[in-house]
């Protein structure tokens, strides 16, 4: 696949600030078990363009598991997850092109530099980005001067920033963020908040877990409370 | 798709070059295991020539086993593996890239160092060339088969032992025909051809099915 092809097949990905096409994620009757414990069942909700879904719940209520199921890493016991009306398993690569997932693990190699990590991730994501864009993203996320250092020498918060820099380069419509504010300083929290606001404002979908309050200047915030019944159900 | 393959190949080779000890341990393990036998059984020429092919191949199997555990483990631990699954690229192509890099780093060095080992067993001339060729065709099969086992045992406690139990029996055909080729070549060079043809067939078969099976196994393990 040549670079020129990438540009023509994915024009919206070269300009991450352009508005997104409308999209929606629907979940119907979702049930997930881990071991013999049923984390949740009969879960129904919908998130559409310009909306943020804030998943809340105490520790161990299955927030991370839900997010992993939503991005297709985990096969639910029952129920369906549909992206624009199509089941995500059937969409396959069409869905993974639209989604970016940042979990508890940063997903960066510690022996590679920040720029190298982002370059590999961008090429695999099918985003046509050049070195200037990568260095630009790293300096915007506050890692100017650290681009060429192996990420093993960076602090926990700086490693997290390298992972978050992907949000600046991606054209994905659906962002799934698992506790994205952990380990970040005040400035980085502010920057991330503005990125999330921008993604929602241009018609993207954001699903996130966090223990802090989320404020949006535009768009809708939906909340989903897991484990509110108190006791975990035995399956 | 080819670009994806190259990106992963280059990434894994860059990573290995920054952490050379992993590559070198495999190589030295191979050299040491193969060198222990002449010391143990004595230096009688006929006996060593007779033992040589089998010992070199068993050492190659063990060395390849040793490196397998690391094939997916570090990517699994730092989350890059699950990120790979979420890219719009076929997982089997990514996996093939990783396996190729793994072979270039752990299989190819064995092939290159084989003449040195061969000399200890009084193998020279054509038998030595046959051994190198057999290793060149056979070691990629080891990496390809081993990748399935490495993917299945990913993240398990005591996965290393389980991996050996799972994969070593599957290595038997390669061992039989690989060492057979070298043994036959010391008698009559013309008889080597069917052994090589079979090794080649194993390689084609493994190349076709291993990436798919490994990708499926990884999806289960990461879940």
Short structural description:
The complex is a heterodimer of chains A (235) and B (223). Chain A has 235 residues and is an alpha/beta fold.
Question: Can you tell me about this structure?
Answer:
Chain A has 235 residues and is of the alpha/beta class. Chain A folds into two domains: 21-98 and 172-235, P-loop containing nucleotide triphosphate hydrolases (Rossmann fold, 3-Layer(aba) Sandwich); 103-171. Chain A has helices at residues 3-9, 63-70, 88-91, 93-96, 114-125, 131-140, 156-164, 166-169, 186-201, and strands at 24-34, 37-48, 51-56, 78-83, 86-87, 99-102, 174-178, 205-209, 220-225, 233-234. In chain A, a hairpin with a 2-residue loop joins β4 and β5 (86-87). Chain A is globular and about 50 Å long. The termini of chain A are far apart. Chain B is mainly alpha-helical. Chain B has one domain (2-222). Chain B is built from nine helices and no strands. In chain B, α3 runs parallel beside α7 (126-152), α3 (45-68) runs antiparallel to α8 and α6 packs antiparallel against α7 (126-152). The two termini of chain B are 25 Å apart. The mean pLDDT of chain B is 91. The interface between A and B is medium-sized, with 32 and 27 residues.
Task: Set down the secondary structure blueprint.
The complex is a heterodimer of chains A (235) and B (223).
Chain A (H helix, E strand, L loop, with lengths): L2 H7 L14 E11 L2 E12 L2 E6 L6 H8 L7 E6 L2 E2 H4 L1 H4 L2 E4 L11 H12 L5 H10 L15 H9 L1 H4 L4 E5 L7 H16 L3 E5 L10 E6 L7 E2 L1
Parallel strand pairs in A: 3-8, 3-9, 6-7, 7-8
Antiparallel strand pairs in A: 1-2, 1-4, 2-10, 4-5
Chain B lengths: L1 H17 L1 H22 L3 H24 L1 H8 L2 H6 L5 H30 L5 H27 L6 H27 L6 H31 L1
């Amino acid at each position: 696949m040549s670079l020129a092809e990438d540009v023509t097949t994915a024009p919206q990905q070269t300009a991450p600030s352009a508005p997104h096409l409308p999209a929606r994620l629907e979940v119907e009757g979702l049930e997930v078990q881990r071991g013999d414990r049923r984390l949740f069942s009969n879960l129904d909700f919908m998130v559409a363009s310009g909306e943020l879904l804030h998943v809340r719940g105490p520790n161990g209520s299955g927030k991370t598991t839900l997010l992993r199921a939503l991005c297709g890493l985990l096969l639910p016991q029952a129920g369906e997850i549909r992206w624009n009306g199509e089941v995500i398993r059937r969409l396959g690569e069409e869905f993974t092109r639209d989604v970016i997932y940042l979990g508890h693990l940063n997903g960066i190699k510690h022996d590679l530099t920040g720029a190298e990590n982002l370059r590999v991730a961008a090429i695999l994501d099918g985003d046509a980005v050049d070195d200037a864009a990568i260095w630009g993203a790293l300096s915007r996320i506050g890692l100017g001067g650290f681009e060429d250092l192996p990420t093993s020498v960076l602090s926990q918060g700086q490693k997290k920033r390298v992972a978050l820099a992907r949000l600046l380069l991606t054209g994905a419509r659906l962002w799934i963020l698992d506790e994205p504010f952990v380990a970040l300083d005040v400035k980085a929290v502010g920057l991330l908040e503005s990125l999330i606001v921008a993604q929602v404002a241009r018609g993207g979908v954001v699903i996130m877990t966090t223990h802090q309050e989320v404020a949006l200047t535009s768009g809708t915030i939906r909340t989903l409370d897991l484990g509110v019944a108190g006791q975990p159900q035995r399956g | 798709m080819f670009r994806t393959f190259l990106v992963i190949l280059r990434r894994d080779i860059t990573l290995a070059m920054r952490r050379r000890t992993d590559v070198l341990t495999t190589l030295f393990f191979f050299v040491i295991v193969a060198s222990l036998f002449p010391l143990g059984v004595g230096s009688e020429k006929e006996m060593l020539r007779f033992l040589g092919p089998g010992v070199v191949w068993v050492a190659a199997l063990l060395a390849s086993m040793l490196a397998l555990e690391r094939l997916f483990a570090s990517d699994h631990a730092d989350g890059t593996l699950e990120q790979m699954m979420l890219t719009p690229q076929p997982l089997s192509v990514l996996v093939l890239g990783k396996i190729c890099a793994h072979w270039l780093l752990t299989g190819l060095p064995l092939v290159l160092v084989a003449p040195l080992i061969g000399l200890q067993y009084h193998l020279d001339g054509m038998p030595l060339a046959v051994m190198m060729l057999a290793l060149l065709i056979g070691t990629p099969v080891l990496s390809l088969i081993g990748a399935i086992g490495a993917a299945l045992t990913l993240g398990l406690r005591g996965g290393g032992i389980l991996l050996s139990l799972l994969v070593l029996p599957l290595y038997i055909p390669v061992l039989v025909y690989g060492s057979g080729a070298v043994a036959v070549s010391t008698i009559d060079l013309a008889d080597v051809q069917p052994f090589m043809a079979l090794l080649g067939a194993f390689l084609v078969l493994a190349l076709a099915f291993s990436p798919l099976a490994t990708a499926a196994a990884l999806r289960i393990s990461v879940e």
